[in-house]
C-alpha cells in the first residue's frame, strides 16, 4: 500500500472519529423542536388554578408548524387541555375565576375569546372593527377595557396616492359592557396613542399611558392620565408633564398609582425607547394629592413593573442582573428603604411569561436551567418559593452540557463578563473551534439558559445562535456581554455611547484572545454570528479582522445613514451616536460596515426578514451587493413574510440548517 493511500486513509479515519466525537455532544442536530415552549403562566384569582399558554412543533414532522394549547391545572394536579387552531396570548382570568379570556384571531381581526373553565366551552366574546391589542377585565367583572386601532379595513391596497405623514391610526381605549350585545364605548380621542392602562380597584376610573404621536420613535415620550368613567373627565398626572410615564398600575387599596419613569427630563423632542437615555425609576402618585415620589432603584437601574403587593406597601419589579437573567425585586413605597431581591435562583425566568395574579399573591412564570427544559412554576409573592406545576418535558432528554461564567480584561483594562458553553464530553486538553455569539440590543445580555434552546422571545427565535446546533457542529460557544449590555448598571450600558464598534469590539476580541491564550479555543477555527445588533457587530468584526473563517449576520445594520431613513426607529443612531447624520456624519460613516466592505474576506451568510421594519432588508441587500460585486464569498437568505425575528416554525428550522451548513466553512 503506497504512502499516499495510507495518508488518505488516516485522514478519513480521523474525520470519522471527529464526526463521532461531535455527535456525542447531543446526538442530534437542530433539536430545538424537541420540547414544549411556554408563552405565559397565570394563576387564578384565588391561586387554586394555573393557566399555561403552550406552543410546540412536532419534532418528527417534515413540515414544521406551531401547535397551540391552553392548559389549566387545578390544586390537585388535574390537567385540562384545550387545543387551539391559532396562537393565543394575553391570558386574563375573570374576577370570579370561572372563565379565562385571551386574544386570538377572529374571522378578520384579532379578537377576545373566553373559555369556561368548568365546561371548557369557548366562544368569541368581542370581534371589533380592528385588531384588539390588549385588554383587561374590570375588577367588578361587569366590563372589559381594551385597546385597538381606529377603524380599519383589511382590504386591497389603495390605488390613490398615500400621504405617509398621515398613514397612521391611533390605538384608542374602549370599554365593552358584558351582558349587553355589541355595546362598546370609545373612551379616548385621536390625540391619545394609548400604550398601556389599568383599572382602579372600584372600577370607576382607568389610568392610561399615551404617546404624543404614533410610532416607535416616540415611545420614550409617554405621559399618564386618569379617566373618570362617571364624568368622562381626563386628568393629567403632573409629574409626567416634564418626565415620561409608562406601565401605570393602581395599588389594591386605590391610594397609589405606580409607574415607570425616566427621572431625567428628555433632551430630544423625539427619542427611542432604549437604555441609553433611560435611567428608569419606579415612581408612585398619591391619588388624592396628585404628588409623586420615586422609589429606591435596582442595581441595573431599569426596572419594569410586575404589580403591587396585596398590602399595597410594596411594588414587585423585574430587572436584568448579569448572567443570571432577570430577578424579581420588591420596592417599598418608602423611598428610603433599599430594593430587595425576592427571587434567588440559579435558573432563568423567561420575562415574557411572568405574571402576578389578580389577588397580588401568586407569581407565575416559565423557568429553565442549563440542563432542564422550561416548565411552568408558581410562587407566593411572600415568601418566594418555587413550585413546579407542569411536567411537559418529562420525556425530553436532559442536557448535560456546561455553561460557565468567565471574566477577562478588555484592551482598556475594563473587566468584562460572559459565558462559555461546552459539551458533555469536553476535554480540557483539547483546543476547540470557537463560535462567538453576539447578542442583540445592544442593551441585552446573555444569561444561562437551557442548552437545547436558542435566543428566544416567545415565538420569535434567532436561528444563528441555537446552542445545541452549534455544539453538535463541533464548536464551543462564547457569549460575551460587552459594554453596552444590560444587567450591569446604567454606567456600563452607557459605555458604548458614540463608540459603536469601538470598545465593544475590543471587549469581544479580547475575550477571544483570552480563550486562545488559555488553550481553550483553536485560533484556526473561529466563527462569529448574531442577530440585530449582533448582526451589525458580526459584519463590523469581519471588516476589522480576517481571523474568522465563517460569519453569519442576521438582521444587521450595515449602513447607518440609509437605516436612519428607512427604519421604524429613525432616531436610533441619534441616541447612540449623539447627533443626526447631517449634523455630524463622521461616526455614521466610520462605524458602518458598508464603509469598509472592501476589507471583508470572511465568508458571510446574511439573513433578513422580508417584512422587517426595524432593520429593513435593504440593509442586507446593500452589504450583499457590495460583496457580490467584489466576487467575495457571500450568500443572502430572505425569510418570506417574517419580521425582525422569524416566528414561522418551518422557516426557523430551515434557517438553522442553513446556518449549520455555512458554519462548516470554519471547521
Automatic annotation (TrEMBL):
**Keyword terms of this UniProt record:** Hydrolase, Protease, Serine protease, Signal
**Signal peptide limits:** 1-19
BP terms from Gene Ontology: proteolysis
Residue stretches making up the Peptidase S9 prolyl oligopeptidase catalytic domain: 470-667
Q: Spell out the molecular function terms from Gene Ontology.
A: serine-type endopeptidase activity
Q: Name one Pfam family in it.
A: Peptidase_S9
Q: What is this protein called?
A: Peptidase S9
Q: What is the originating organism of this protein? A: Legionella antarctica
